[in-house]
Structures are given as C-alpha cells and as structure tokens.
Amino acid sequence: MTHLSNQPKNGALLGTGSDIAFQGKYAFAGNYDGFTVYDLTDKENPEQVVQVSCPGSQNDVSVYKDILVLSTDSSRSDDSCASTSMPATEKAAWEGIKIWDISNPLAPEYVKSIETECGSHTHSLAPAKDGRNLYAYVSSYSPNTTYPDCQPPHDFVSIVKIPVQRPTAAALVATPNLFPDGGYEGDPDRRASTTSGCHDVTTYAKYDLAAGACMGDGILMDISNRERPRVISRVRDTENFAFWHSATFNNDATKIVFTDELGGGGLATCTGEYAPELGANGIYDIKRSPFGKTKLELASYYKIPRINTAAENCVAHNGSLIPVKGKDLMVQSWYQGGVSVFDFTDSDNPREVAWFDRGEGVSSGGTWSTYYYNGYAYSNDLGIGFDTFDIDDSIDGPAEKVRQNSLNPQMQERFGR
After folding, report:
1. Does the N-terminal peptide bond of residue 58 adopt cis geometry, omega within 30 degrees of 0?
2. Phi/psi at 189 (nearest 5 deg)?
C-alpha cells in the first residue's frame, strides 16, 4: 500500500474522527464534532469542501440518495447542533439519530431528529423493496438503571422508518427484541461483555439479510420484513471473543467477518502478549441445510501478523470489501496497528496481502475506518484526519474498473453480476 495524502482535522471539527460514507464524487466523514464533506474529484488528494459542526459522539454517518443519517450516542441538552453535554441521568437529555437533506451536498440541511433508547451508537440502512421507504436499524447498548431513557435489559434494536421523498415524516416504528433469553451473560475474567443490545448491524438488502455484532453474541437475521427482523442463526465464542463489534458479509453472502474489539479500542493487543485469536476477526461460513436451517460456523481467525509496541492501541475495527470478482478481499483499520488488506477466499486460511503502519505516536489513536471506493482506500483517523491510499494493482487491479455510485459499509450492496 502507498500512502498518497492526508487532510488534517481543522476548524470546528477537532474531535475524534469516526465513520465514512460515500456518494458520487463525495466522501462524508464523521467526527465527534460533526461531519466533513470531501470532494474526491482528485482521488489521490481529496479536497475538503464542507464542514458541518454538530457535536455528539459518535456521529457515524450513512447516506442514501438525498438523505444523510447521523448517529448521536452522547447525552445532549437537546437535538440541535448547538446542544451541550448533559448527564444521561437527566430525563430531558436527548440521544438518537439526525436526518439531513443532502440534495445539495455542498449545503446539507438538518431536517429531522428521532430520539431512540440508549441513543444511537451506530445505525445501518436498509431500503424497502419498493424504494419508497428507508429503514434505519439503530444499534445502542449499555443500559443503566439510573438512565431514564436507557433501562435494562435493552435486548433490542430501534427501527426508524424514513419516507425517501418526505424524510421529515420519519418515525420510530419498531423495537424488536432480538434476545428473549437475555443474551450472553458476560465473563469479567475475559473482559467479555454482556449482551445488552447490538454494537453494529450490517444489512444486505439484496439477500434480505442482516448480521448483528451484539457485544456477547453474533447473529444472522432475516429482514425480508424490514420492520420485523427475525434471528435465524446465533453464535457465541466463549473462549476468544470479548466484544462482538462489527460484521461484513462477503459478496455472495456465504460468509461473515465478525470483529472482536477486545478492550474497546484502547488495548495494545498486537504486542505478542495476546494470542492471535484475541482482538481479531472471526471468519464464519453461512451454512444452509436442505431443510431450510441456517447456521453460522467458525472457520478461522485473522489478526495482523506484525508485533507492535505496548504504546500502540491495536485491535480489529472497521473495514470493507475490495470488489474483485471471485475473491474475498477486505481492507480494514486496526487503530495504531494501521491498515491491513487480507484475502479470506479460503475461509480456513486467511492471509494478509498488503499493509500500512504509520508508526508509534504519530496519531493519538490510529485509524478508525478504512473503506475501498472506486480504486482507492480512504481512511478516517481518530487523531490526524482523512487519508488516501493506493493498493498495488496486483491485488486490486480488477476492482479499479468497478464503479460504485455509493458506499455505506454497514449497508452492503453486491458488486458485479
């Protein structure tokens, strides 16, 4: 991999860099202080064209047509972009999703907010089959009896319905319970989290599927009825996984890469002290029986093979597929472990094929998310801004010919035929 450029954080958006979404020639990069729009016309050196100040972690972002959705997972005095921090113990505190009109990407307009229980740590979009409505699956977790708007056991996701032509009519329509038995009880000795909601849900509307990384459980859902998702397979790893963080389908929806964010992103799990199965990806095959049963089956683990220092937080985090037909390739962030490109075509034997490591102490936290879009890999760093990478043609040559009109890593779309 070759590092081509960096656009430093600046202006009012000096907080933590978070997730990214893409549409047309623009990238929308989240930041705990708002979001930035980059023009990718010069793909090797993007230009910052808009900066929107709207504080509220995490500000994970997704886009669909003229709609942008932003997650707020910190208690605020109200739903405005002038809000201030407020304790979650206050009933008046607000958390949830914010909806923007981006029909003009250079002038985003805030049009609607929806409050959701426990806020919105992340969200994932799924358009209805007729295209008239867009559904947002809102993931949140960690309830507390002292939080009026985030009470235990919180075993559900919140589903918001957004009319595509009238987003101001968006409303909360369902809160399906995904864990009637309460989910995994956790294990403090392993730093393993109790299931109390989901951290990330990734949708794949073409196949009517969604994968949930739900702290103590990994789940596969049938979302053919968008308002009534149904868990069809569930898996736990009580030996190695501590915090089921995110999920990525392969292109054919026959595999899922689940990530384990052991330590919540703050641990240095790549020092050699932690086993290669800890703080890693778990690669699961989706097995379908002739009798209609679906089962997730662990094939292997993948962790970056380099040894980092104890001062470098390093654990599996956000990434996306590289669209090479006939292969399962993924580019992924590992905080201060850098960026890794790995091939999991053989589920049992994943291998790294490219990497970039910025080195110790350059960034305050490393890279949060790295995604492949129209020939290049783009990364949002917690501390130092927006990066662009080129991957060697021997790896992504065929992918450079694939043109995508949009990319939301938590709303997967099939590439190729």
Report:
1. yes
2. -65, -25
Structure tokens at 18: 């978070």
The answer to pTM > 0.70 is: yes
- Match 């003009």 to its residue by tokens: 104
**How far is residue 106's CA from residue 146's CA, in Å, rounded to a whole number?**
41
Nearest-10 Cα torsion for 264, 149, 133, 404? -20
- Rounded Cα distance between 379 and 389, Å, is 8
Q: Counting beta carbons within 10 angstroms of the beta carbon of residue 345, is it exposed (0 to 12), middle (13 to 18) or buried (19 or more)?
A: middle
Tokens of 32: 């705990």
Torsion angle of alpha carbons 240, 246, 249, 255, nearest 10°?
10
For residue 216, which of 273, 305, 154 has the smallest C-alpha distance? 154
Q: Which residues contact 193 (CB under 8 A, 6 or more apart)?
A: 184, 186, 215, 216, 242, 243, 244
Q: What is the SS3 assignment for 245?
A: strand
113: β partners: 98
Distances (CA, A) of 44 to 47, 313, 370, 397: 10, 28, 15, 16
Query: 104: which 2 tokens?
Result: 């003009």
Read off the DSSP letter of residue 394.
H
Query: Per-residue pLDDT for the chain (417 aa), expressed as one digit of tens each?
Result: 999 999 999 999 999 999 999 999 999 999 999 999 999 999 999 999 999 999 999 999 999 999 999 999 999 999 999 999 999 999 999 999 999 999 999 999 999 999 999 999 999 999 999 999 999 999 999 999 999 999 999 999 999 999 999 999 999 999 999 999 999 999 999 999 999 999 999 999 999 999 999 999 999 999 999 999 999 999 999 999 999 999 999 999 999 999 999 999 999 999 999 999 999 999 999 999 887 799 999 999 999 999 999 999 999 999 999 999 999 999 999 999 999 999 999 999 999 999 999 999 999 999 999 999 999 999 999 999 999 999 999 999 999 999 999 999 999 999 986
Contact by Cβ (8 Å): 59, 31: yes
Could you tell me what percentage of the chain is helix, strand and coil, using 3-state DSSP and rounding each to the nearest 5?
5, 45, 50
